[in-house]
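Lesson 9: reading folded outputs for more than one chain in a single document. The general rule is that every protein is listed as its sequence immediately followed by its structure tokens, and records are never interleaved. Here is the first one.
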Amino acid sequence: MVGVGSMIVIVFVALLIFGPKKLPELGKAAGNTLREFKNATKGLADDDDDVKNDSSK
């Protein structure tokens, strides 16, 4: 698990590497990627539930 000190170091390094103007764009891209991944995994779980329900009939 990442502690507060580690998070501060990560943010500081990200600021040094990408600069303050680029960070919001990177954050938005990371959020969109996580949202798409979550939707895809939810879709797979729903498909698996459908297959289980169909096979029990």
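And here is the second record, again sequence then tokens.
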Amino acid sequence: MKRRTLLKAGIGLSPLLPLTGMAALQSGQKNSAQVLVIGAGIAGLAAARQLRDAGSDVIVLEARERTGGRIHTYANWRGPAVDIGASWIHGAGPANPVAKLARKIGARTVTTDAEKAELYNGDGTALSARDEKKIDGIRREVSEAIAEQSRRGPDSSLRKLVYAETDYETRSVLEQRIIDFTLNSNYEHEYSGSTDQLSRLWFDDGGSYAGDEAIFLDGYKVITDSLAAGLDIRLRHEVTAVRYGEKEGVTVETSQGVFTASAVIVTLPLGVLKAGNVRFVPPLPAKKQAAINQLGFGVLNKCCLLFPEAFWNTGLDWLQHLPRTGHAGEWTEWVSFARPTGKPMLMGFNAADVGTRIEGWSDEKIIQSAVSTLSTMFGKPVPAPLDAVITRWKSDPYARGSYSFNAVGSTPAQRDDLAKNISARVFFAGEATEKKYYQTVHGAYQSGLRAADEILKLNLRR
């Protein structure tokens, strides 16, 4: 299952609510509520919607000029929208809550198929039947090594485990390329963290829903727009401090003024919590701070290229690339939207260390590298793209990465520590607080409902 989650500085969507920022304050909007929600990503919107529908007075504070958080739909290209944040409903069967919501609002979705895939050699030559057999064998070898050894002994990195169990140092150059490709494609792109950081004990300790992988023809924003409708959302309100030490209530300081409430739900991404830009007074409990420090927060960046026409097999959904020696992890995964949407568009991914490194490149260098890789894959020059959209989620001050992972030294129980409320006044939500469905939109959505329900139940007991 591919968890595709993240934006080029300067690309923004029109705010959902015209009354924001100083205009909102000048119009006389109040700065107090029963509940404040920090963050208008899907976790915050889900929580606010649940509370509002139950009759609570809620204000949502959002630092960006748009709602959605790590869900961001780019709609400047004619035809199907492009999600440069989260893209898929993973396991879009009847039990998935986001799939249920999509069906409820009549969202247009199509599916992609991981089996509609082809692997291309990184040196421009075709893979022989013998090479393909070797690749399949090594992939199985890596998978079996992880399955047999990942829950044994003290924690260490996934790469260390695989290298030891596959006798990496004694393998041929081609076999080493395949092992590194497998670690990057199957694990780093899936979990967002480097295999030097992924915990071999807990990296895959999560759950999933059954069903296809679905994308939105009109973008994921149809979900967040639906949840946001009618809510009091204050855009361009960057939170700088949360004070909860008073006898009653909480105070939240923002770039546009101070807000007070009986309770607050914090849905900041784990990367933002790690950066420490939001001050908590008093400081967060030791267990919660340890969870913030020890859980990982990785990177998965996208480069979306719109071409004048498709030059690839449009019957495929996934194009994989086996990089040449010295270029491990570069442009190993591409998704084609030609079959599901009819648009001649390829989206290339770079995860973990490579995904972080290229954020320092110029747009021109990233596009040139992507086109050069495609030319090598197809053994001929490919046409220049008509347009491109590039993401830099690690550099985004309101994300600091793409999504969380279980790092070496962390434990799944720390997600419960992260989710635990403080004094029934400060509540936490977001994908990183979900023990079972972390890294996913449905996990973030469920965490928001959970935090809202905690508040509603506490109010009933008071």
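What the second record shows: The first helix runs from residue 21 to 26.
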